[in-house]
Structure formats: structure tokens, C-alpha cells
Specification:
Length: 295
């Protein structure tokens, strides 16, 4: 029996990227109203055995989200500015990924640590609980600030369109705007939920490490990010496959509630973009299966 593949994607500037089994498709609304479509095969690192191996796959997904996410964002920005023929340097993508990662670690891990140290707490558990609360508050405040930016609001609407489309596909209904429109903008496998789970798991992991000198605690927070990401992905992975279980949904509920900040109700034009991306990536997968020689 063939293992079911779960499609997912990412909102970009005026568009949506959908990831398939072996390729990804990005569809962006041009300034003139037409659609720009880019289909790319996925590198082996994103489809090979590591992507299927528990714990390792969480690290690969993190790399995938950073690298592919940055590439598709740059592509969508070029399309929206009608400069899509401008080549995107691989070095530029990696530089932006590194900068984004450094800023994220500083904002969500280092700053909470430094603020928590001001309380002079001697209990490792209490220290990391306060550290975790500050981390979550900063994360929610960051998302709240993002919702105030008009351009980001449109990206969040495409995020909602992506979720509605995937929800409809998984429900097995016709992929038509009139049908998809009625589905939820929240999805259990969303990156927002993943980040929230990562923040919660970090409290437990850092508590186990204990209290040390400031520089050593900073080092631990950087070194343990892949471990925390791996554990967080396994939680989301399990939740996505048991989303109809009441206990699982209760555990994942905070992440779903948080998606109210990162999604908006899309219009029909935005739904059309998300549908076009999903339909094309599914068609590409089906074409590959048809082309595979019979045994």
C-alpha cells in the first residue's frame, strides 16, 4: 500500500508555493493580473532517506523551509516587480538564509535569555519557565507587529488561501473556488504551529541542560536548535496524522489559535493562485507515477 503524501506549501509575495513529492511549484499573480508559474525539481536532500527518517527529517525540513522559502520569496518579489528574468544568485540566497537565522536566534533565544538573567533566578526549572514565557511573548508580539504591515497582510491572506486549498484537497472535495472558499484558514501542519511547538519544547530541553555561565548558555541555545527543531517536527508530524483525535487537537490547539495572526481570509483571486499551485504540483506527481515503469 502506497504511503499517503501530505502536500503543503508557503505563502509568498502575491502568490503561493506548493511542495510535492519530487518538485515544487510556485504561482505568483503578475501586476497585470496573469499568473507566473515556476516548477522546479527538488534536490535529493529534500526527498531522500533523511527526509523520511525520524528526527533527522525535522532538521532537513528546517533547512528546506529556510532555503526554498528564501528562493521562492525572491522569485515572487521579482515577479511582482516584473523583473523575473533577473537571476537569483545562490550565494545571495545562502547569505540571506544565514542572516535570517542569526536574527531569529538572537531575537527568540538570546534576548529572552539575557532578559531572564535580570531576575537572578537560581532554579533551572523556574529560570527556563520565565525564559520560555518571555520567548513566547516576543514571538506573539513579533507576529502582531507583522499584521500591521499592509504588504504582510496580503501575504497572510495567501497563507490562508494555501491552508484552505490543502484542507479541501485532504477532504477529497472538488478543487473549485466556490468549494474551497468554505474551508478553514488554519491547518495543523502549519509552520506557525511548528514554531510555537519549538518554543515550548525549548523550555524542557534548556531546563535539562541547567544553569551555566552566560556564554555557555548562549552556546547551548545555538547548538541545540537542530535537536529542538527535530523534536518539534515529530510532534507536528504525529499531530498531522492524528488530527481527528480529540486529545491531539487539544494539545495542538494553541498553535492553531496562533494562526489567526498569520492567516487572513483570502479573496477568490488569491484562492485561484493557491489552487493553481496545488493542481500543478499534484499533476506533476501523478505524471511521474504514470511514467514509472511497471514491475
Amino acid at each position: 500500500m502506497t504511503k499517503r503524501f501530505y502536500y503543503g506549501g508557503q505563502a509568498v509575495i502575491e502568490g503561493v508555493m506548493m511542495r510535492g513529492q519530487k518538485n515544487m511549484v510556485t504561482v505568483v499573480r503578475r501586476p497585470g493580473g496573469g499568473l507566473a508559474i515556476e516548477a522546479q525539481p527538488l534536490a535529493a536532500i529534500y526527498t531522500g532517506w533523511m527526509r523520511q527518517t525520524p528526527l533527522l527529517r525535522g532538521i532537513i525540513v528546517l533547512i528546506e523551509a529556510l532555503v526554498l522559502g528564501m528562493k521562492t520569496l525572491l522569485y515572487s518579489a521579482n515577479v511582482s516587480l516584473e523583473e523575473e528574468n533577473e537571476p537569483v544568485s545562490g550565494r545571495l540566497v545562502w547569505l540571506m538564509v544565514v542572516v535570517a537565522l542569526v536574527l531569529a536566534v538572537a531575537l527568540f533565544f538570546i534576548v529572552p535569555l539575557l532578559l531572564t538573567r535580570l531576575f537572578n533566578l537560581e532554579s533551572s526549572l523556574l529560570f527556563n519557565l520565565v525564559d520560555g514565557v518571555i520567548r513566547v511573548v516576543i514571538f506573539i508580539a513579533y507576529l502582531k507587529v507583522m499584521t500591521l504591515l499592509p504588504d504582510i497582510k496580503r501575504v497572510f491572506a495567501y497563507h490562508g488561501a494555501e491552508h484552505k486549498t490543502v484542507n479541501a484537497y485532504e477532504a477529497g472535495v472538488p478543487l473549485e473556488v466556490e468549494v474551497v472558499r468554505g474551508y478553514n484558514t488554519a491547518h495543523v501542519r502549519c509552520g506557525t504551529s511548528f514554531l510555537f511547538v519549538v518554543l515550548l519544547i525549548s523550555v524542557i530541553v534548556f531546563a535539562l541542560v541547567g544553569l551555566h555561565s552566560p556564554w555557555l548558555m548562549v552556546l547551548w541555545r545555538i547548538v541545540l536548535i537542530p535537536v529542538i527543531a527535530a523534536l518539534g517536527y515529530e510532534v507536528i508530524y504525529f499531530g498531522g496524522r492524528h488530527s481527528h483525535n480529540g486529545l491531539v487537537r487539544a494539545i495542538l490547539a494553541p498553535g492553531l489559535w496562533l494562526q489567526a495572526l498569520t492567516t487572513r481570509e483570502p479573496n477568490d483571486s488569491q484562492l485561484e493562485v493557491a489552487l493553481a499551485a496545488l493542481e500543478r504540483v499534484v499533476a506533476a506527481d501523478q505524471l511521474k507515477e504514470t511514467a514509472r515503469p511497471s514491475s
